Simple sugar transport system permease protein
Amino acid sequence: MTLDDFHFASILVSTVRNAPVLIFAAMAGLFAERSGMIDIGLEGKILASAFASAAVAYTTQNPYYGMAAGMLVCVALALLQAYVSITQKGNQLVAGMAINIAMSGLTFVLAQFFFQQGGRTPDLGSARLFDVVLPGTQYVEHIPFIGWVYAHLIGGHSILVYVAFLLIPLVHWLLYHTRFGLRLRACGENPHAADSAGVSVEATRYMAMLVAGILCSFSGAYLAIVQSGFFLRDMSAGAGYLALTAMVFGNWRPVYTFLGCLMFGFFGAIQIQIEGVDLPVVGRIPGSLIQMVPYVVTVIVLAGLMAKSVAPKAIGIPFVKSR
């Protein structure tokens, strides 16, 4: 493979396809953290949803049943995390890391137990979610540039890609233009003031974790039944942590968080494109170094923006009702 095979158009399409995993997880974390909950357990919930989605989709040969199973598992984990952190006043970081560690091992063990394929599920085949062809594609795809944009950049993606991108204005509206969003942000900034105003802080945080569980389930389902077509051990590859970094980059705001997800999706696409390419001067870069690209970018982003980002003031602090 040479540099001539390195196409910017392919990078743009790959960016659009890579971003939904991060978008769903980042929006999930945004709801949780805006309410005052540190959701470090995104990684584990993505893995759990990916396994449940792949296993049920393969068994039933229906991707929508797989998505429903992933949602149920992810919501159950989110509510368990909420119970430990909200009702029992447990350490939110410890609860999230426990979910990550447990799901990393449990999903592998269950996959090996049920399918005996080295800790992965069989290929889903027809049980995958396939791409959507937009109306009129056949009439415009031969038009230079416009045809490519309509047929490949905008069209030709799974339905979950469109859901992910439409989610951004919806989350923005919910957070900043609804009563629920106002209460959510109040619980994350000053829960005692919210409690004095008659808002149930615990109920609001439970609701936030419920929404976060639903959204995070789509991230795992997208990995399993759209991108890969199977479940593989630790296939999330740090997507939950990248989503948290995108939140820091976006200062806990939906639109800027979305841009952070696009940035990581872009670097992930570049990683795929330059693997095996003979670059000028440096030649062919080892694959292990290329795989480091998104994580090096993560460190740079955190080092450069962490001091400038302002998290919700009550994040990570268990709420104890004043007497």
